[in-house]
Design goal:
The chain has about 150 residues and is mainly α. The protein has one domain. It contains 4 helices and no strands. The protein is elongated and about 75 Å long.
């Protein structure tokens, strides 16, 4: 197998800083991207919380039905009245938390991250990570190609 053409063994243009974009800007945009990734992870955890809480409420309903069938009507009725379908926060079920997070903080964060990339780097993403890849990979070595179209 021949080594890739040196001109081709470079990051794709969308992963190279535009002319005039300095290292400090690439690093700052990388840190902003890192912060957004953390927000995305938090959002995923919030959706996990939403799903787990919903699953717990469904299981609670089944437990209440089973308690009722087992002859524990008073306890089953008390659980049904007080706990089944209860708000997790004042006036809110978890779907409302997810909606509020998505419509507020998460959307605003994504907008600002994209705005910064557009303003400072022609919208290019992951410039810091692409630079890290270039610093760490071994030119010409299989499995270390700069781009997917250069693989075996």
């Amino acid at each position: 197998m021949q080594p890739p053409d040196a001109r081709q063994d470079q990051p794709a243009p969308e992963h190279q800083p535009p002319p005039g974009v300095d290292d400090a800007t690439v690093q700052a945009l990388g840190k902003l991207s890192e912060a957004l990734e953390t927000v995305e992870h938090a959002r995923g955890l919030l959706y996990g919380f939403h799903r787990l809480t919903g699953s717990a409420d469904l299981a609670l309903g089944e437990a209440i039905d089973q308690l009722h069938r087992a002859g524990h009507e008073q306890l089953a009725d008390q659980l049904r009245e007080d706990l089944l379908g209860r708000n997790v926060l004042q006036g809110r079920w978890t779907f409302q938390l997810v909606e509020e997070y998505d419509d507020g903080y998460w959307s605003r964060f994504r907008t600002w991250e994209e705005r910064a990339r557009q303003q400072l780097a022609q919208g290019r993403r992951h410039l810091h990570e692409a630079r890290m890849k270039e610093e760490e990979r071994t030119d010409g070595r299989p499995g270390h190609e700069a781009r997917p179209d250069q693989g075996a």
